[in-house]
Amino acid sequence: MKLTDKVAFVTGGSRGNGQAIALALAREGAAVAVTARDTEKLQHTVGLVHDAGGRALAVPADICDDAQVKQAIDTAAAQLGPIDILVNNAGVARFEPILTAKPEDWRLMLEVNLLAAMRCTQAVLPSMIDRQTGWIINIASSAGVKGYHEQSGYCASKHGLVGFAKVLALETQPHGIRVHTICPGAVDTDMARTHRNIDDPSDWMQPQEIADTVVFLASMHGVAMIDNIVMRRYKATPWP
Questions:
Q1: How far is residue 184's CA from residue 142's CA, in Å, rounded to a whole number?
Q2: Is 148 a catalytic residue?
Q3: Residue 64: which domain range?
Q4: How many domains does the chain have?
């Protein structure tokens, strides 16, 4: 297995991409801590990992709260070991034309999609720097590299996450920490289904495909480095 003896921390791990990522990391030997606000759904993810023979820990937390993030990271490290792999996956979307968009929705997306990732990263960095190793994988979006109608706040938050990752990579490069960003297009998740009709799910990427990409990045050790991966549905426009 590729990730034996590694410890991963996955935000938004109660469903969708986060759940698939947790399962994929565990299958490759990593011990996985998953966090989200819904304790019951987190325990379901942990149960799936245990059923597959892996190690997992549910760490309920609101990642928009500084103290809860620190406590969640400390709890995961105490029970599983120092965090080797952080996956900033948690996200929220509210779509509306700019003229009618609600500022509270903009604030929510910036808080969850951007500031929470910055907060979690800051919490794991001291240990990674001390050990001179680590992987920080940010799940952004194709909305982090292009614009979409009615997605002003979402695009702003995901562009911000990509920008944060660029600076993070520069500052952590001397410490052996690898920073990656994945920018997927349409993925068949509950969040996506609340905003778009999915007539044919086979046209959409599946969470497992995002999870497989996370495992690939978390397994990189050599001289080669991948900063950003943009993923699209096969039927979407190539090279937009």
A1: 5
A2: no
A3: 7-231
A4: 1
